[in-house]
Amino acid sequence: MGVEYDTDGPDDDVVEELAREVRAVKKQKQWRKWSEDVIPALLQPYMTLLRETEGLRNINSKRQADGCDGCSEGRLLNVTCVYFDNLEKMTLCTCNEPALQLLQKGFFPCAPQLPTLAVDLGVLDFARDLFINAAPNTTAWCETLEGFLSARSFKLSTRDSLRGRFGNALKWYATLTNTKNLMLRDYLNVVRGAELSMEDEGDQYESEGRFGLACSLKYIVAHVSISDIVYQPEQVPEMNEQDSSPRQFNDRPDEYLRERCPLCFGGENWSKPSEKVDVIVCLDACFTQKRRQPQGNAWHEPHTHPETVFIPPSEVKAMEEIVESL
Question: Which of 15, 37, 93, 259 is 20 to 30 Å apart from 186, CA to CA?
């Protein structure tokens, strides 16, 4: 009696499905590492670097600092550093976080733990500003940069390796800078609020004069750390049909609106009682960005801007009814 064995191996669809699951798990781990560990840990060192280098103007002085050349607590890691006009090899020891070591030298890594490529912060800042004024195209940018470097005999070891890693570094560096800007804004708002409250109590500080007020502000700045400022989006309350009490509005537009357009919302005469509405806002969206969404059931990392603001559907519906009734 003969026995037949299946020598064809696993089905190709099964292998592909398993590969997708492995990639999804890897992406989830990297996203958690970036968002929960690396970005929060880099905020203070990044602001220190900006202060000590005058906004990255004197970044070369930081690149001369010596680091660990290898010890028993870590292993050596080779990293390719990308500049505008050349590539350089750097060797780091993993006894300290590689991302922190690279940032202190003026680079940003492509991966949260063991990066093989890092990009000069000046290159990333230039790419960010370019993509604000032109359509974002990481592929074209990387192909141009790679061809420019290749013409000068600077070549990466693997084919098509710059696009994915550069895009990853650019995305998370943007998250770092946006989070930093948000923390600084909240910190300044705390100081401004303290100054306004002091000015309201003019009688109390009248005898002290401006010197006393300045000393009080110095005390606040010295005792309120930026790391204590945590951004918590304001929750817009849901409209309750049973609640007929009139809603309370501020006498000024929200700080978010004043920052976005000081001309429209920052002045004192932004509201005119004779007008039916205070402001008419027109939005123009480009829905072609939806092409970047993953196809099928692939896992997509929840990457959002630190200052993302969502309005509840009930609020939008109520405003729509008001506009339609005008």
Answer: 37
Mean pLDDT of 125-151: 90
Closest to 105 (Cα-Cα) out of 117, 121, 93, 89: 121
Token readout for 18 is 């398993």
Q: pTM (2 decimals)?
A: 0.71
The count of other CB atoms within 10 Å of the CB of residue 106 is 21
* pLDDT > 80? residue 172: yes
Does 216 have pLDDT greater than 80?
no
Percent of the chain with pLDDT over 70: 72
Structural domain span for residue 255: 249-280
Q: Is the Cβ–Cβ distance between 93 and 67 less than 8 Å? A: yes
Q: 43 and 159 share a domain?
A: yes
Could you tell me which residues are beta bridge partners of residue 117?
Answer: 80
Task: Give the 3-state DSSP-derived string for 249-293, with helices as H, strands as E and coil as C.
Answer: CCCCCCHHHHHHCHHHHCCCCCCCCCCCCCCCCCCCCCHHHHHHC
Q: Give yes or no for a contact between 229 and 185, defined as CB atoms under 8 angstroms apart.
A: no
**118, part of any domain:** yes
- Residue 107 inside a domain? The answer is yes
Q: Are residues 272 and 153 in the same domain?
A: no
pLDDT at 119 over 90: yes
* Integer CA distances (angstroms), 258 to 53, 76, 262, 319, in order: 31, 49, 5, 20
Q: Please indicate, yes or no, if residue 132 is contained in any of the structural domains.
A: yes
pLDDT of amino acid 218: 53
